[in-house]
């Protein structure tokens, strides 16, 4: 679908600018607060309280994370319309070659090689139908022929990736907004903190908080866990299908609307590669190995994509830390930093990696309601467990030192899951 390609191009061209704009917005807000001498507290908000064996931790949940996130979305979707942000040019055959005027279309096709010659990268917005389309294969053949001595010029981007990323970003944003407004009235309220301190023995406060947060989060992640499992399974199957298509590529299996187009394309390919069969071998061997190596280097899912989807958590935790600094409550400030680091860097990344590993193991099995229920529940439990532990870092039942140790341990696990283990094996092998 066209909207998927548009979303991918926005992600490809505007993402870095959107991240920079969001961070600048957050810096401007907190710089103004610094010179003002106090935090910009929304009058409709209330204090939040987390009980612990060493006392109640008090902090102020506010909506300071919202402006940077809105700026991020605005630049992501419309940054290419701003003159100052136009730094990349894309040649899209369907947009740049006339589709209704026969003569203009013929002239555009004849000049296609020149456009490819001056292009640094061939970005393939991949979907399962890509290698079944004759003109897509022609572009791939032309680019590979012109840049055959240059490594790493073909970039393959599955169209489903930005859907996952944007879905995670919006889910985290909505969760932050809901938690900010509902939390101080329920699990983070003063009455709940006082009741916990008065009723539950100090040595059981931390287990109680863990169970409470896990119960709330499990309910929150039930539907996203199911949707994430379905996506992970389809995404893993698509990756396997791509390698299968490359390994079994045949020009005769490609589709075209006019037979004269096939004669034109096969004539060009024969001139470039010697024969159609030689080009098929290039796709089945050279391009297959390049794509397979690229998949291995990228991993099942880029960690950067998961990191950016958690920007709302980062800005929310940063706002909490800045507000605690204004009150000179440095212990709470460090706890908020640990909370944000764990949420942003580790917990979601670990849960999504678990989901992808489950999908890889189940890829060859039939999709049944039992397997769907089991795997989606496991993904939900992974999100629930990780985020529940992260929220408990705000409790005084854990020392600040232990908070830091937990974050470091979670970061090491994330690093191992996203390529660190392969690097260690390479070092040991050498």
Q: Your description of this structure?
A:
Helix content is 70%, strand content 4%. With 430 residues, it is mainly alpha-helical. The protein has a two-stranded antiparallel ribbon with strand order 1-2. A two-stranded parallel ribbon has the order 3-4. Helix 6 links the parallel strand 3 and strand 4. The longest helix is centred in the middle third of the chain and has 43 residues, at 205-247.
Key attributes of the depicted protein:
single chain, 430 residues, mainly alpha, two-stranded parallel sheet, 16 helices, 4 strands, 70% helix, 4% strand
Walk me through the topology.
Blueprint lengths: L1 H35 L10 E4 L6 E4 L5 H13 L14 H4 L5 H9 L1 H6 L4 E5 L7 H13 L7 E5 L2 H22 L7 H10 L5 H43 L11 H15 L2 H23 L4 H7 L1 H16 L3 H33 L6 H24 L7 H30 L1
Parallel strand pairs: 3-4
Antiparallel strand pairs: 1-2
